Fold these 2 entries.
Entry 1:
Amino acid sequence: MNLLCISASNIAHQSSENSTSYRICQIATDKFSANCNGEKSRIIELRHKVIQPCVGCGKCYESHRCVQSDDFNDIYDEIVCTDILLIVSPHYAPIPAKLAALLEKMEQITFLHWCKDNAWRSEVFGKPVGIISHGGGGARALKSYKRMVNDTIANALDTIQLKPVSLNSKWDTGISIPVKKAVFNKGSVFPSQEYDWELIADTVSNYLEAVREVFGR
């Protein structure tokens, strides 16, 4: 069983260790590797990739790949080959631009074939996907993050024929991570965000178990 974790943050100036999305991915891959024997886990950071928006040229119909973006093709190949996909996304407007571009390209590849043959199955059909969102707000903001981030991503995944994994009936499109405290510092336009990383590790671990169960069915 293999896990591919996508860190969807756009922030280019941070080190990986200071990226919340990357740190959540790291927790997930560490937990996954600790519970598996010989399986592989890998993190892709979209902020280092060049993924142009889909222009609707239709050339992906024959090749099932994009003629505009080699980075997209490399990521899509990895998604095709992995057993489990995990997407960790911050709340932007509502999701990061490169993640939106990644999803729309996969969606186009699937849609062009499905609209001609409703029985057609994509290369990623039924593959389980976990969705973890986060933002600058506390626990009260989680409902809005679910609606704007998790649900948005899950709707796209449904069209792509991937399978979003729920945690429970309330969190049916993944989970969301709150900040413990946000403090504005002098000299910076961004708040300094503090997280309860021990609680996050437990939350991610529980959700990963739900994702693994879906894969095993």
Note: The first strand starts at residue 3 and ends at 7.
Entry 2:
Amino acid sequence: MFSLVVGVSDRKKLLLIGATTGYQTRVFAEAAERLGFELMLATDRCHILDDPWGDHALALRFEDPEGAAQVIASEARVNGIVAVGDRPAYLAALAAERLGIPYNSPDSVLACRNKFLARERFRCAGLLVPEYRRIALAEGPHPAADTSRYPCVLKPLGLSASRGVIRANNPQEFTAAFRRIQALLGDPDILCFDEEHHRFIQVESFIEGREFALEGILVHGQLRVLALFDKPDPLDGPYFEETIYVTPSRLPAGVQTAIEDCAQRSVAALGLVTGPVHAEFRVNDNGPWVLEIAPRPIGGLCSRALRFGAERISLEELLIRHALDLGGTGVEREKDASGVMMIPVPRSGIFEGVDGIEDAEKVAGVNEIRITARLHDYVAAWPDGSSYLGFIFARAAEPAEVESSLRAAHAKLHFRFAPRLPIEHPVTGKLRA
């Protein structure tokens, strides 16, 4: 067990940058409190209201990265920074540069957030990459629809969680996908950031194979793999909403080694050197293809599927220790198999409730079910959405048992939705369904 006897005068302070309502923001805060460290929050809460959440957080405008970084540099006196989410990771890089705190460079983090820049760097590093090109929204879907090879995948350059990613098998589907992504990128909540990469759509040849996810931590540029997850559900489109993650992977050892090597080469190509890494891969007979690398921990509540060392500490505790340079991050993941189901959204609508939770919780191996969607809130299905209905967690001796438990529990849940009436956006005046 780690000894954390820390005096008030020498207690280190950690800065956590994340969305006000993000699940992980609260989880990191709880972990820091357990460890006895002082945590300073920097979030996208309203900068006009006087501490509406009662958390004394720095109020940042995420749409103004340079300004947000300057606020942090002026007001934060911290020993380390952790970011939760893709945009917060970029703010953290800018702030760390000003504060002189070890972190990834803004250039490397920006490359992770732009699918075109990432592909360029992967190609230059000799990694397997599909055919790809970016098309300006202003150009429209033609003539690209007639000149593309099929099947292909269209995707926004800067959105995460497979939001807006659509497979097309012919020119007609290409045009429909282009128009749908174009409409998504016209959402005022995206336009307010005025980021150049939101003015393009990337077109890539479809990569056959199965998907896997890797969770790791970088120390001086060297990747230590914390977990390799199987994604047992086929992700072949037309949309790519993720569901089940199970670890340890059931892949042969040689294939796992190839994925880990690909991950190391990928982070080097991007220029990442420190902190958490979440990576996505496709694997086929040609080997592993890196889909994306994110300099942040796994999203949502999925980290609850991971525990480390004899004391079964959380991923958040591990990352806090790394950010504050405390050591003790070399512990291995627990021996039992574990997994999480990100509960998929069957259709868009107003969430009115769920039945069957008690029966689902009784399924052997299931240790927790968390419904995170709020009652009477609108929930969007993929490819427009990016938030799940909740999470199911399971543990067992073998990965196959974990997968079976997650599927059995999910089958007992029945979600209720109501249609949403169109509303007028207060700024643009446009009706939004």
Note: Residues 13-104 form a domain with the Rossmann fold fold (CATH 3.40.50.20).
